[in-house]
Structure formats: C-alpha cells, structure tokens
Design brief:
single chain, alpha+beta, five-stranded antiparallel sheet, globular
Length: about 80
C-alpha cells in the first residue's frame, strides 16, 4: 500500500498508510508528555498534497489542528425547514 501521511511526534517520525493509522499512533502517546516536551516537534504531513498540520492536545487526547475542515469534511446539515 502507498504511504499517505508522515506523523512526527516529539521529533520521532512515522510513515502511515491512512488517517486511521495516524490516529492510532497518536492514541499510544500519553498526553502528559506534552507538558514535559514541546509540541513544536509534533505535526502531520499529507504526502499527497504536502500540506502540514500542527498537532495539539487537550487534557485527554492529541488532535490535528484544521485537519477535519480540509480532509473528508462533510457538508454542514441545514436546519432550515
């Protein structure tokens, strides 16, 4: 299979086949690590488009900033009747 993403977490790179693998790898890293180290070395590169996305975190998990809005985003549902 073709590699689609390069995930870098705290300076350690990982080539991933799909976005599910990216999220699985991010779930393996404790969020507390972000308190001890900088998030500057955490990012995702889409190998098809060369777009780069920052990785951030909240109290529970890491997430990809802006990725949901640009990749596989669904159109908002209209509530007008």
């Amino acid at each position: 299979m073709a590699l689609s993403y390069k995930l870098v977490m705290f300076g350690f790179p990982a080539l991933c086949e799909d976005i599910d693998e990216v999220y699985a790898r991010m779930r393996q890293i404790p969020v507390d690590r972000a308190k001890a180290e900088t998030l500057e070395q955490c990012y995702l590169i889409d190998l098809q488009s060369a777009d780069r996305y920052e990785i951030s975190c909240n109290d529970r998990e890491f997430f990809i900033k802006g990725f949901e809005h640009t990749q596989n985003a669904k159109e908002p549902q209209s509530t007008d009747e």
